Automatic annotation (TrEMBL), chain A:
It comes from Carya illinoinensis. Its main location: nucleus. It is found in: Nucleus. It comes from the Eukaryota. This is BHLH domain-containing protein. Residues 1-21 are annotated as: Disordered. GO terms for molecular function: protein dimerization activity. Residues 7-62 form the BHLH domain. The keyword Nucleus applies. Signal peptide: none annotated. PROSITE patterns: BHLH. One of its GO terms (cellular component) is nucleus. The keyword Transcription regulation applies. One of its GO terms (biological process) is regulation of growth.
TrEMBL record, chain B:
It comes from the Eukaryota. PANTHER family: TRANSCRIPTION FACTOR IBH1, TRANSCRIPTION FACTOR IBH1-LIKE 1. Keywords: Transcription, Transcription regulation. Residues 12-78 form the IBH1-like N-terminal domain. InterPro entries: IBH1-like, IBH1_N. This is IBH1-like N-terminal domain-containing protein. GO terms for biological process: regulation of DNA-templated transcription. Coiled coil: none annotated.
Length: 96, 155
């Protein structure tokens, strides 16, 4: 097992120089997706670790929003029964 | 980003997700209440809604992405295990997976990211970043659609 790990380390060590650019490219792509960093007026380059940190925070906040929204939807479903008519309404709303 | 007022692509990920999710919601009508308090009912239904949301999004994406495949696999095995427990009432074997960080000079935040993105534990750095980007956009769509539905119901 340790031999496999050392072998993989050697492989990525040699190819790391080539993929460093790719990684920087992908990190900048991630940078554009995070609203916190995207809306910042300064166009200075953000460090990769900051981008990763903000990515983690953003994904966590999205997970939390999903939890809150499903709580909300559960409450709402209790009061209003969904029938197919409402489903059709919603579908038309979203397809506008 | 399509501006408001322009009709969206009917085959877009967003529409596919919305259709599946609304269908799942409509199936969640109140059955005969089990002998549990109302709060518990709301909580279990909220959990079901959350699972349905992730499932609908993963299905809308399909098996083209590693994260959707991993998520579908996780939800299916969890559902299977859940059904077995309900039927047999056997004890659950929880296997705690120890994530060994390969000391290859990866930034420390990579470990956290791997835990957040489904399937991220076994990806190399490039795939992890790609999958993260795609996962983030899909999550944002999911949140937006759920918000729209909740606002519509609240009226």
């Amino acid at each position: 097992m340790s031999s496999r790990r050392s072998r993989s380390r050697q492989q990525t060590g040699s190819s790391r120089n080539i993929t460093d650019e790719q990684i920087a490219d992908l990190v900048s792509k991630l940078q554009q997706l995070i609203p916190e960093i995207r809306n910042r007026p300064s166009d200075t380059q953000v460090s990769a670790s900051k981008v990763l940190q903000e990515t983690c925070n953003y994904i966590r906040s999205l997970h939390r929003e999903v939890d809150d929204l499903s709580d909300r939807l559960s409450d709402l479903l209790a009061t209003t029964d969904t029938d197919s008519a409402q489903a059709a309404i919603i579908r038309s709303l979203l397809s506008q | 980003m399509t501006p408001k007022g322009v009709s969206l692509n009917p085959n877009s990920r967003k529409t596919k997700f919305a259709r599946r999710f609304i269908f799942a919601l409509s199936r969640m009508r109140n059955p005969i209440p089990v002998s549990s308090s109302i709060e518990e009912e709301v909580r279990t239904r909220s959990h079901k809604i959350k699972i349905a949301a992730y499932l609908s999004m993963a299905r809308a994406v399909g098996s083209r992405r590693a994260w959707s495949r991993a998520l579908l696999f996780k939800l299916r095995t969890r559902a299977r295990r859940h059904n077995m427990i309900i039927r047999r009432r056997s004890f659950r074997l929880k296997k705690k997976r120890i994530i060994k960080n390969d000391p290859q000079g990866e930034p420390s935040q990579t470990k956290k990211l791997r835990q957040l993105v489904p399937g991220g534990k076994t990806m190399d750095m490039c795939s992890l970043l790609e999958e993260t980007a795609h996962y983030m956009t899909c999550l944002a769509t999911q949140v937006k659609v759920m918000q729209t539905i909740a606002d519509h119901f609240a009226k």
